[in-house]
Amino acid sequence: MTLIHRLTPVALALLLAACATTTAPPPAEAPAPAALPAPTPSIEAAPAPEAAAPAPVRAMAAELLEDNLRPGQKIDLDAPDASTDLWARVRQGFQLEDLDDDWVRKAEAWYSARPDYVERMTTRGSRYLFHIVDEVEKRGMPTELALLPFIESAFVTHAVSSAKATGMWQFMPATGRDFDLKQNIFRDDRRDVLASTRAALDYLGRLHKMFGDWHLALAAYNWGQGNVQKAIARNQRLGKPTDYASLKLPNETRYYVPKLQAVKNIVLHPDRYALTLPAVANHPYFLSVKIERDIDVALAAQLAGLTLETFQQFNPQMNKPVILAAATEQVLLPYDQAGDFAENLARHTGPLATWTAWVVPKTMSPSEAAKRTGMAESALREINRIPPRMVVKAGSTLLVPRAAHMQDDVSERLADTASLSLAHDAPPLRRVSIKAGKGDTVAAIAARYKVRAEQVAQWNKVGAKARFKPGQAVVVYTAYKPSVKSAKATKAAGTKVASVKKSGKKTARAAKPAAPRNVAKDRGGKGRSNVVAAAAP
To answer: Which of 155, 347, 509, 516 could disulfide-link to 125, CB 3.0 to 4.6 Å?
Structure first.
């Protein structure tokens, strides 16, 4: 009996709703995303896989699966063009005017000297290249743009630059939001393969429309459109040409397009550089399978028969160990695992999600939040990334264990807007009014109440070196209340009386007090940047 007859209606519906995209075997040495914290609640293990259906996905793909990214087209892995090399398709779509200068030679030499790096980079990129080329061609864009992630991130989907640009296409936070890439505590769409590719091509298309030149559009993608516009205006005032090669650019941007040219040259003639490109099949490598209920990341990986690390390579946008159906419509899975996932999901009888979102009703400490949600404080801090000495502000969203009786998934509104606001866990300050003693100075009172002398002077509108009259009312704002014993000891230490013989009289001299500790410090709290140096020559 074929899989089509043995699949339950739910599993079949999931597969029929799947949309296709790219691949090639993930390299063992490819960097992996940071591991998500292990779930605290217990989760019912996925049922032991039943006897697997023989070659289910490939048999169904040619007949049934429809690529939602290319409506009306069937996926047929046995079609002649599916077995051709994708690199040939990439070469046929090259359109950009070639550069040939010392910057290109420098980049070519850099890549040529690192064959292992090029192999890792191209093998890693082969997972996503079919989908990107498909999207580029649908928009009528040059296929050189499909090679841009080689320059931006070396196809590391979780890459983060020193300037906080993130993902395969290296979006800055603000630019990502401009192109509808959601960024909250549950997910960061700048790392999402489908969403970030859509946003990057939208952005590049906008820049090309603005400048009318792909080289200038690429420079603006790297340096910012405003900067490129200023560089063009400067050349116009000076009567100089305004093409990419003629503009005054920072070295990073001057080198940016030549690096892309070098990668293009390597794709055209890898043998000239003593390099080998891994074969990339001209057919989808992954499918996107719809998610209709919240599900733990670990369970989703288990149902797909993948390691957690491999699952995260295809779904790097997840920030937490749970996938929220309201915000994440699908997961990406290697083509051959999509059918297994749908079938195992239909068989699964235990809970799908052991985590949920909880909105904090009032500002509270992590220990209080942990008690309310039945978690260990250390686990709550780890899963929600709460640093020491911080409190959780009212309205924040925390990830907490899901009660066994809870049936409702996290709402779409909360899944899209969830945020975590923290405040420094400082004791509340109180106003203290005291009477100055004999010989009390601003410095002495500051030392006694563990505040800064400048603050005491400001509160009482006196100079920082002022001396108070005995009995004078002095105001202090502090969380520290010294005992009678400690107050006397502090005062004795803060004001040192030295006997100085002068004109037959003894004079009291205030010694410089030790630097006081501030008990209530305030803690605070488009551009583009390329990823770390390892991602580019």
So the answer is: 155
